[in-house]
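User: Good morning. I'm curious how iron/sulfur cluster would be positioned relative to this chain. Could you predict the structure with it bound?
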Amino acid sequence: MHLLSYEDLKLKVWDTERCCGCGACVGVCPTEALYFDEGADHPTSNDYCKVTRDSVPCAACYSACPRVEETSSDGFGEIISIFEAKSKVHVSDAQSGGVVSSILAAAFEANLIDGAIVMDVDKWSQLSQPAFVQTSDEVFKSAGSKYFWAPLLTALRDAIEDRKLRKIAVVGTPCVATAVRRIRESDVDVLSIYKNAIRLSLGLFCTEVFTNNLLYDLQTKHGIKPWEISGLDVKGKLIVKLRDQTTLEVPLKEASVSKRGGCAHCVDFTSEDADLSFGSVGASAGHTVVIVRTDVGVGFLQLAQSTGYIELKSGVDITAIAKIGGKKKGIPLETAKKTLEEHL
Ligand SMILES: Cc1cc2nc3c(=O)[nH]c(=O)nc-3n(C[C@H](O)[C@H](O)[C@H](O)COP(=O)(O)OP(=O)(O)OC[C@H]3O[C@@H](n4cnc5c(N)ncnc54)[C@H](O)[C@@H]3O)c2cc1C
Ligand code: SF4
Ligand code: SF4
Ligand code: SF4
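Assistant: Good morning! Here's the predicted structure, ligand included:
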């Protein structure tokens, strides 16, 4: 019988340039056989795989990978409701309405989670790094979108195997949310510890992430050094916010030269596999769009609302979401809009 291993992942994902760099395979490998070389397009094996060395069944890496399955271009996933929301507490570095941070803070306060995997940024180099937060204070410090790629789910091992946490949330881009969904649905033994520990999946809208080449281009073409950057935003163009309170606007066409290769195969804009999805497009200024997708999502959202962390209202601009979401799937705007409108 053929035992699935990283070699199948290599054939199906690494060698076809479909790897989205989510880091799930690296994070769940029980023998630490997989790793990312700096800036690599996909992971590499050190050949300590228990399947290929000892013929012991595993398949954890393959079963967690979001790119081994065909992606669907139909619809926008399960949708229970769509709101726009805003944090009622001040979140200083919030990207949109500070809602993701506030939902996590409410969950920590209610002891529903004991940790969350988020993305951090080194303010000096601007390089992203997977991070792990365990208190509301740490959550608020990690607010804001990080547009430079890092393999987020490599942090799973740190969170669950090393720190022994058993109630975690994961915040991530749509490909990360798909990896989380596959782990939660899997019946592979090695994945059960991760499956049981992930209590909440918070997905962000996403059109692309950038490689560190963009930092090089910003420096050489625009004279901007990494430590001068205070944040980034993508709104039809790349907006680079600088610490001296000025901004630089870079056409997306120019920035997209540094788009990570695996993003070219991606058709999910709205994090269809998450419990709750969040974005800025379609929301009024200072607000976040929230797509509620599962009963778990309903519970965490209601908790944040009832404990005074967030306020919700209707009035999301569905056309704006349909335009970008439909384009990413290659479906007409009208079809995309109709699918979303059914849930208003
Ligand atoms: C790469 C990327 C591209 C995006 N593109 C779009 C877009 O095209 N259109 C759109 O409407 N919205 C986009 N978003 C989502 C948007 O920028 C906000 O994240 C969203 O509106 C939530 O805002 P908030 O203020 O509620 O979140 P906040 O309260 O600021 O919290 C954000 C949380 O997300 C975590 N985080 C940030 N970046 C990452 C990351 N790369 N991986 C995992 N966790 C992360 C932070 O650590 C923090 O915990 C994108 C986000 C990212 C990361
Ligand atoms: S030991 Fe398991 S997770 Fe690690 S490479 Fe082999 S099959 Fe993949
Ligand atoms: S998509 Fe994620 S799980 Fe699949 S090979 Fe790439 S890093 Fe590993
Ligand atoms: S565009 Fe797709 S593959 Fe790229 S980071 Fe976003 S969700 Fe992942």
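The two ends are 49 Å apart (CA to CA). The chain has three domains: 6-64, 81-209+262-341, 213-258.
Let me know if you'd like a different ligand tried.
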